[in-house]
Write a structure and sequence with these properties.
Helix content: 25-40%
Radius of gyration: 18 Å
Distance between the termini: 42 Å
Strand content: 15-25%
Number of strands: 5
Number of domains: 1
Strand order of the largest sheet: 3-4-5
Order of helices and strands: HHEEHEEE
Oligomer: single chain
Length: about 120
């Protein structure tokens, strides 16, 4: 049992927090992104982290929780160049149907991406 507001007493939680923040710093630096996108980077890193296998479990955290193997085919590198399809209402006859953007994360509860 741990005391309230004393996260340092929970070694496992502290280790995960440290790992996530190191990955966030590396992702932002690798993407050349500004610090203002740290929340999106953290959500993206946590998304991938929960779908990555853990050696002690021999399965992913999400698989241990739900019993199903996660689909990892839609992973992107933070800050990578992506092309987003414009909605039909914004498409014009001779203009491109896509816009260039930068990948910044995954939408929670869906299969969409956050693009800047």
């Amino acid at each position: 049992m741990t005391s309230l507001y004393k996260a340092q007493q929970n070694v496992n939680a502290e280790r995960v927090n440290r790992t996530l923040m190191r990955r966030v710093r590396a992702a932002l630096l690798g993407a050349g992104a500004e610090e203002g996108l740290w929340a999106e980077a953290l959500a993206s890193v946590a998304h991938v982290f929960n779908r990555s296998s853990k050696s002690e479990l021999e399965k992913t955290s999400l698989e241990a929780l739900t019993g199903r193997r996660p689909n990892v085919s839609g992973f992107f590198v933070l800050g990578s160049r992506v092309w987003a399809l414009k909605p039909k209402q914004q498409q014009r006859k001779v203009e491109p149907k896509t816009e260039v953007g930068r990948f910044v994360g995954y939408m929670t509860g869906g299969k969409s991406y956050l693009i800047f």
